[in-house]
Amino acid sequence: MRISRRLLSAAASASTANPSEIAFFSRLSQQWWDESGEFAFLHRMNPVRVGYIRDKILATAEDEAPTPAQGRETVRALGARPLAGLDILDVGCGGGLLCEEVTPMQSLARLGGRTLGIDASSSNIAIATLHASQDPRLSGSPSSSNESQKRLEYKHTTSEELLASGPERPQFDVVCSMEVLEHVDHPDKFLRSCADLVKPGGHLFLSTISRTPLSQFLTITMAENILGLVSRGTHDHTKYVKPSELVQFFSDELRWIQRPSSGSPGTLPFDQAELRGMSYLPWAGKWILTPRGAPMELDCNYLFWARKPKTPQ
Fold it and tell me: Is the dihedral of CA 220, 224, 229, 234 positive or negative?
């Protein structure tokens, strides 16, 4: 497996944050909240990403209720704030789109989660913090000393540094890392750090790009080189991660998933993990979840969800 080989070759002290990647995105940091600029595709992708997170959290709450009727009542009671009461971490938050996109149903904090966004770029964190400060409902009233009022905070750090920040390891109900995995060094170490930040029984959400000829054509040849939709050098096809590699890592290395007997990523235990493709519809200007079973469903952009076992495996 490609990821495991990279893990074995990485020094234990090696950082997953790539200085060149940090510098690249730091130069673009002023554009995070320009919906027609460099990050336009991420703005359009956000409803799908947050909707998927919301739906998985609600589905889990419904499934774990003692009866179907109680499950439906739980979902109804959560209403427009399905993440209320949950501690949420966004790893590689960039300018804060996933954390606080202005449209109410398109961000973690606005759905009720106590959200911490972290990023290896100080420029990104500065932009995110400035943007959040414009809405006291997210950042807390400037005149108030009550920290519990804060629904959203940002911090310039990495997942590894957060784990090592104190004697008590911080853990979260939900950890997200969207469009980050394909930019880090030593992806195994990065995944382990994200996994360690999840509480037992908690959720990990990733979105990334598969390493296929189709993704090379769409994300680099077309998006970068021909259409100029994103800057050249944004992506490195060799760093893309296949869905099967994630499944194997979470099965064999972390023991979060009981590996399916068929070996197919599409036959994952429904209560342990899931893969969903994402497709961009240029004629509609929006992203959608790719229909299950569609040809090449997982050959480009995709989402991965896994639930940490409540007891060590």
Answer: positive
